[in-house]
Amino acid sequence: MVADDQLTKEDSVALEKLYHDYYSAMHKATVKTRSQMDELRRSAVRDRQKEMEIGNLYYQEMQALRKGFGDSLAANPRFATIARLRNLFLNYREEKNAASEAMYKELIEYYEEDVFFDLYNDYQVDFVYTWNDKFITLIQENPSFITYPEYLFNEYYDDIQVTTSADGRLRSYRWSNLLLKNCPEFTSFQQYRTDDGKVLVNRGEELNDDDLVKNIHVLDADGKRIYLLEMYAKLGNDRSICHYHAEAIEGDDITHPHVFEGKNENEDFGVVYDEKLWPIHVFQDDDWVMKYDEATRTIFVREYEDESKGMLSDKYKSYVFDGEVFKLSD
């Protein structure tokens, strides 16, 4: 018997098809409307009334598609929480747009640019953090989110990243708070499943909101399962860091096993570099800064050509896991 908040494999396939059909229909309607508008605008005399009619029909069609999609979600009890997530995202966008409009009207008298945007940011911060709390609460109240396909979270909220371990027991969430002035802040937290099946949330102080989790590798060692998180963050002044962070799920807690030889307990293993000199900040492909090979349980790390400048070389060191720690290979 499948619980109402759990997705079966068949559910996931049906859900993916539902999303595909929905977005295909939206794309088709958009292409048709653009074609009609282009044809009208090529006329010698512009018919604005006709343009408005086409625009209104397009809006009605979009509304009907959204309603039909929402009804399809609601028809399956195991999609109920997904529908709730979708509605939260859609409501957030509507609330954010309405709040932005209200802010502009209230602050328009302060339209010297520096003062205006400082005040606008104060309003924006309060609104965004209130919404962030809503989203985190929603995740806490719905343990089944740990099983949902990652694309469900990417559809509705800008710049959200969801990364899940291969065994499905650890999931990382991170999103931009969308502050103005090109100065974004981020929110990060984790969802994890304990040995006895509980799904909990980690918002611990050890989590750096600026860190983007690119991948979560699973490493079994001495009866313990270790999660090796590949992380990336900007440090400012063109400096960035790629690093590995180790975690384990023990009891109801997230712990931080000491697996990097030569590092202090809880200390990560990473490389700080200058993005101008090494613009590709990935963990794989030809231009990697660090990368992990699961087959040999080895971390490869670029050596510095000039550490003071954050300049990397084509040489690298390899650190092999010996069952307890990653050790520098001869």
Topology:
Elements: H1 9-41, H2 48-75, H3 80-107, H4 113-141, H5 151-154, E1 160-164, E2 170-176, E3 186-193, E4 199-202, E5 212-221, E6 224-236, E7 239-250, E8 253-255, E9 269-274, E10 290-293, E11 298-306, E12 311-321, E13 326-328
Antiparallel strand pairs: 1-2, 2-3, 3-4, 5-6, 6-7, 7-8, 7-9, 10-11, 11-12, 12-13
What does this structure look like?
The chain is α+β, with helices and mostly antiparallel strands and 330 residues long. It has a domain at 210-330. The protein is 37% helix and 29% strand. It contains 5 helices and 13 strands. It has helices at residues 9-41, 48-75, 80-107, 113-141, 151-154; strands at residues 160-164, 170-176, 186-193, 199-202, 212-221, 224-236, 239-250, 253-255, 269-274, 290-293, 298-306, 311-321, 326-328. Strands 5, 6, 7, 8 and 9 form a 5-stranded antiparallel sheet that branches. Strand 6 (224-236) and strand 7 form a beta hairpin. Helix 3 (80-107) packs antiparallel against helix 4. The protein starts with 8 loop residues before the first helix and ends with a strand. The model is unreliable at 179-183 (pLDDT under 50).
